[in-house]
Amino acid sequence: xxxxxxLSTKRFGMEDYHEKRADDxxxxxxxxxxxxxxxxxxxxxxxxxxxxxxxxxxxxNRLTHSLEVACVGRSLGVNVARQLQAKGISAPFLDEIGxxxxxxxxxxxxxxxxxxxxxxxxxxxxxxEGQGQNLxxxxxxxxxxxxxxxEGNANAFxxxxxQFKGRRKGGFVLTYSTLAAIVKYPYASIHSDVKKQxxxxxxxxxxxxxxxxxxxxxxxxxENNNRFARHPLVYLVEAADDICYQIMDIEDxxxxxxxxxxxxxxxxxxFFDEKRKSRIQETMNIxxxxxxxxxxxxxxVIGKLIDQCSDAFVANEEKILNGTLSxxxxxxxxxxxxxxxxxxxxxxxxxxxxxxxxxxVELAGYKIIITLLEHLVSAVLTPEKAYSKQLxxxxxxxxxxxxxxxxxxxxxxxxxxxxxTDIYALDLYRKITGMNIPSL
Length: 440
What we know:
Blueprint: H1 3-6, H2 27-36, H3 39-43, H4 62-86, H5 97-107, H6 116-128, H7 141-148, H8 152-161, H9 176-180, H10 206-216, E1 220-221, E2 224-228, H11 232-255, H12 261-269, H13 274-284, H14 290-315, H15 317-322, H16 335-352, H17 356-381, H18 386-392, H19 406-418, H20 422-432
Antiparallel strand pairs: 1-2
């Protein structure tokens, strides 16, 4: 792969249309702005990141997380572009890497359903072990794998490229490079790993991704031609996400008193040698507000990880372009930082992701999603029934599918559910189960 081909301003859905721009924004900045002002992006403010929403103490939701990831991604991209240019590499739009990565970071979580990863699990299990099991014989192997391993990553690509009813061709009409930079697992569900069943696009969008990959010169993997190599900028988007969710979850847990101040400080100070620890401690002593001290520590850790991940990308540029780098950047930074990061991950898994607050919202979210699926799937498969007709009138027009296949109908239901906020899903659940009857 080469940078000249990988960085393209061609827009998905507008390949044959070239408009003269009257402003100074680059095409990639236009991607960023288009995402910021979109309804699906705004809806992320009411989607769970880790902790329940809302709360008396402000913690991260999907929207604030995505904004922070975009900031870190931009810094990573700017660093990498500068270092590549210092190596003598020249290509059109090379100095726009920061803009491409920040736009892709904004979009990376837009396909996630309500209630975090619990929502993904609920959708997948409804079909793999719930009432949806009997639909397997009505679909191809590829289609069935899509829904029993339902993936927010793949749904983000669908959301950004799919032409919903009444909407324009090409979805968000983003540049090819921005779209490719969000596809963390560039292969179909049928080619995912048995244990880690992650994939980057549904069967319905397979040809769309292949079109983008061919245009950008993205190669297939030498050891598996059913899988594409990642677009190089995926590594930077992934690193920005890894940095933010891990460190910010630690800070949120401190605010919620799941972690003590001492635990939190020790986790973050582990990233630094003794000399830097001493300087950080001196700076922290300037203020007495504990939350301010933790914020300073957090910013110091993020700054260090940005520099180290940038260096790791440039050092492994050849492997990345050849499609042979199999590890994420966060795993190939200096050993001390890897150990500190893994310690944060272990603490988060043991004390945060298993905390009662998190488990409670996951259990409730699971039940809500399953119930919505039971009603909506039945409605789209038997639209002639009286109750189905009433329920289908509740679905916004953009999600109404004219597809006659079961796969197409199911995907339209999943489009609707995945676009819901936590609050909207809960409200609809209460209404269709009769728990909440509107005032007359």
